[in-house]
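Progress report, Aim 2. The chain analyzed during this reporting quarter is listed below.
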Amino acid sequence: MPAPYLSLPPTDRVRSPLTGWTRAHWEALADRQLEALVPYATPGFAQYRLPGRGSWSGLVLDGLEGFARSFLLASFRIAGACTEGDAADESAVSHLIERYTQGLTTGTDRDHPEAWPALTDCSQQMVEAASIAVGLHETRPWIWDRLDDRTRERLVDWLSGFVGARTWDNNWRLFQVVTEQFLASVGAPHRRSDIEGGLDRIEDWYVGDGWYTDGDGRNFDYYVGWALHLYPLLWARIAGPEAAGDRAKAYRERLSLFLDTYPQFFGADGAPVHQGRSLTYRLATVAPVWLGALADCTPLAPGLTRRLASGTARHFVERGVPDARGLQPLGWYGTHLPTTQPYSGPASPYWSSKGFLGLLLPAGHAVWTDRELPLPVEREPQYTALPAPGWLLHGTPHDGIVRLVNHGSDHNPHEGPATDDPHYAKLAHSTATAPESAPHAWARTVDNHIALLAADGTPSRRRRIHPLSCEGRRASSRHLAQLPDMDEEFPIVSTSVLHGPWELRVHHVRAPEGVTVREGGHAVADAVRPHTEHGPGWALARTESGLSSAVIALHGWSPEAGTAREVAANAFGPHSATPYLRSGPHPGGTSVHVTLVALTRDAVHPRALREAIECVVDADGLVTVTFPDDEVVRVAAPQPASIQRAAAS
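Predicted structure tokens for the chain:
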């Protein structure tokens, strides 16, 4: 149910049998969030200084962020409500037009105490300027065209800080593209080479099947949809069909490919898979779905588009976003700072405004009028291989959970130092769980991780991931494990095979004599301590709501198993627990470890599964697993060349 402090229209179970939501719900949600910002506005409305932890950019830029990102939401609300020249339609949003017009006037007045800082190379102002440029384009008849000449000149002067400037070499290139294209659209000075150069650069990052990496490396996350697909097609809207030409055609084709499998990332309860950075943008995850309809390139039925987007909006509303103040806290549901990054300030979550892109579609469009259709996970079991990012998606209708098995995204450059961010380095993510991301928990890094343990218990890390294969229900990768005080790195080749509701993990591990190998399953979190239990070769954690995570030893593990508890480490709740398995002392050389991993809202019987599943490993490292339904899965030992390439890299 929606929070009692959020007033929403009655549900419509005829048109929207799965969510009950209509366009009126989206308008009400937008209005509540925009109105809630007013008490935090500076007197001239050029900044919104919200409560919460500040970013590394400082108070003024956090205030600009509050203006720019909420202006994007206001622009979609204004353009969606207004018919050009119709004063009656405009009356519903006239207060927004007035408020943001005042903010634009104040913020660009260099002599005003609320003035926005000038754009400089690689500055946070660039991000916010792009939102302002898009908002000005979408509201042009109601804001830009009515500004006095002096204010327009000041806006052009401020936005022109992009011309010839340097941005970070990732999705930031597109902030320059859309802003300078807006300048071009109003006859202001701009540099065509900046626009063309940014659009050319993303070609280097396109890896096929609708997927981009966000800059050099294997940076696959939601930025693919809410930035690398979004901004090129927003650029095309600003440039117009003649100027956008073949580029826009290619962008629409790529978005269509991307959307073919994008619904598989969403659980039956509307939750997106919890993976990647900037997750506090929450509802921005649905931006590419609306964009497909807006750009007329979506492969999704209109009823599926709305069901996906409305389901995600309802998911967060029912879990307290926005909160009782009408604000979006820094976190996933409530405030949880380990989910965020140092660049995130109190207004950062308002990049969720991109998720309201659907308001630009008229009320009579089929996405608003067609009957909702079920998500893929609501129809049948889902097994989706995505070779470009190196992911398997695994959805089960009986509990509505989607799991992402990760053998390809690590958020690291191809060369140089590498890190192991918990939102990228894990073997798996899901719509029902989050990684243990607080520093005290990440130091132990138990959940969804295979580690070599040093004598003092320090685990090795999974930093740079080298994908090996991803096809059907199977994917594999290798990484190099390094122990403290040891220069040598030890290759671990991991293979995941999906079977029914389970994930089978097979690890071929090279390790020094005497170390211990440990593997964890999914961390489950709740408002109260999860129930835990373990026995010889298995461990389980279960929340009060019945979400269970289990790991079951099939080969290579000692009888010792257990659960690791954490507090204030998980975005899904203050109490969390992870089941894990351990090996005995490693003999040195290469060992094989086979684990059955379960994450389900159904009952799990680890003892019975351990007895019913047969696992044989021959002298060459070939693993043969026979499941209770008599299906046989074989995983061969990695070829020596794979191990050598891992060591060389």
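The mean pLDDT is 96. The two ends are 51 Å apart (CA to CA). These observations will guide the mutagenesis work planned for the next reporting period.
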